[in-house]
């Protein structure tokens, strides 16, 4: 057994678990946080995506012991009391969900993706001016539909709610871009 202390949604939790317990299982089975879903258990579907120190990870492939002392945010920690996170509100407004199984992972992934974009991380479809080895300085360009789809491609939706998901992310990204100017 290993004693692991992690911060989850702002509260410190101490777990006595076997070293091979995944972060997903620690969240779901030991802490009762069932928002992150067990989809494929292979890191391919994104249903288990959570934020670790603000970066998106697939929790089914992460060992809980690896996250000793780290801050984990699950979908349960996104809202501020009764006030939903802007992405949660946008997902509802744009019908970015149907059955809802993938939604927690989609939301956490979108939050992490927007932070990556703000930090200037390129994607496979990011246009780079010729001859520049790095992304240009300054604010990142607006997120196009293709850019969002590429950056969110690790999160699958069996229902096909992608159009609503992209529209929700575009809405929040536009607001986010206005706030960073």
Automatic annotation (TrEMBL):
The keyword Iron applies. InterPro entries: 2Fe-2S-bd, 2Fe-2S-bd_dom_sf, 2Fe-2S_ferredoxin-like_sf, 2Fe-2S_ferredoxin-type, 2Fe2S_fd_BS, Aldehyde_Oxdr_Iron-Sulfur, Beta-grasp_dom_sf. Keywords: Iron, Metal-binding, Oxidoreductase. Residues 121-143 are annotated as: Disordered. PROSITE patterns: 2FE2S_FER_1 (PS00197), 2FE2S_FER_2 (PS51085). This is (2Fe-2S)-binding protein. Residues 2-78 form the 2Fe-2S ferredoxin-type domain. It comes from Nonomuraea indica. Residues 130-142 have a biased composition (Pro residues). The keyword Metal-binding applies.
